[in-house]
Amino acid sequence: MSITEVMTPPSLDETTVEKAFENINEEIIVSDKAKSEIKKIMEANKIPDTYGLRVGVKGGGCSGLSYSLGFDTEARAGDKTLVIDGVKIFVDPKSLFYLSGTQLDFTDGLNGRGFVFNNPNAAKTCGCGSSFGV
């Protein structure tokens, strides 16, 4: 086995991606408060119902990975689209692996107001909770 073979990760084929998506509805939970806030934001900003909330993970932040949220006009190739109580959510295949079992919640307590990711896969998080490591 050459060094190239050892260092080159296997590619994700369609079957692997589909298997990862099989139980996604049970794996990402959106709390009632988060669903309500998403709907309020869409209404206040006149975002059409055809748009969806893109939930993802990207490199960066104090702990290595950061969560990302934003509205998108449509799903991208390879995305899993969830519809949870009228809220459309787009998740890309790479983010899916980090978000498995995660609950998206919304808090408006004394410590601040915003969306919170309760991720069982996070081995470490930064003080503000916006980045994590596995």
Topology:
Elements lengths: L2 H5 L6 H8 L2 H4 L1 E2 L1 H13 L7 E8 L5 E8 L7 E5 L2 E5 L1 H7 L3 E7 L2 E7 L5 E2 L5 E3 L1
Parallel strand pairs: 1-6, 2-5
Antiparallel strand pairs: 2-3, 3-9, 4-5, 6-7, 8-9
Tally of structural domains: 1
Q: pLDDT below 50 for ≥5 consecutive residues: which ranges?
A: 1-12
The helix/strand order is HHHEHEEEEHEEEE
Report how far the terminal alpha carbons are from each other: 28 Å
Instruction: Write down the overall mean pLDDT.
Output: 78
CATH topology category name? Hypothetical Protein Aq_1857, Chain: A
Strand order of the largest sheet: 4-5-2-3-9-8
Round the Cα radius of gyration to an integer and report it: 16 Å
Q: What structural class do the secondary elements suggest?
A: alpha+beta
- Fraction in beta strands: 35-45%
* Overall shape: globular
Helical stretch tally = 5
Taking the sheet with the most strands, its summary is:
6 strands, mixed
CATH architecture: Sandwich
